Amino acid sequence: EPEVTQTPSHQVTQMGQEVILRCVPISNHLYFYWYRQILGQKVEFLVSFYNNEISEKSEIFDDQFSVERPDGSNFTLKIRSTKLEDSAMYFCATRWEGNQPQHFGDGTRLSIL
Amino acid sequence: RKEVEQDPGPFNVPEGATVAFNCTYSNSASQSFFWYRQDCRKEPKLLMSVYSSGNEDGRFTAQLNRASQYISLLIRDSKLSDSATYLCVWNSGNTPLVFGKGTRLSVIA
After folding, report:
1. The pLDDT value given to residue A84
2. Do the chains contact at A48 and B97, CB–CB below 8 Å?
3. Across the interface, do A56 and B96 touch by the CB < 8 Å criterion?
């Protein structure tokens, strides 16, 4: 069964540094999402991406965050200047179309020191 | 405000037991409902979509009551491998998924 793959599995970074989290969607999927989950809390939506542009973003997704799909394959989440509170699991999810369910990658654990 | 409320758990049940989880949602525009399963420090995995007529997949049965804005998940003949957190999730068309906090299930031998 096709999978959403994410790299790296774990990223440890000093506060203030930039991080880029990568996701390879399932090949025929058209809608892409980033979610995060702080330890012990619920999964929260960050941003959705369709047709090479952001379609929706949450209040968490401030100016420090950006997304792009530079080569038509990887879907990346960049955090420009990380803060301690950015420490979380970051999940990429992709979906084909219509009401098809979203499929999640196995996540990147981001630890900010 | 879009919210999903779930039984907090944890539910500790013996193997072979039947267990039910409930979930209420506040947005009447919600169209699609799902149960996801999440193991500790892993990604959410789709367990089943929930349809208005109710649906069954093996030992798992999901029900939706739109009038009461309520969905449920029933697990029959619980297995040790069913131990996980069960997430009630909804969305509307192309909108992002809205997750509940989850209900933790521990199946005990």
Report:
1. 96
2. no
3. yes
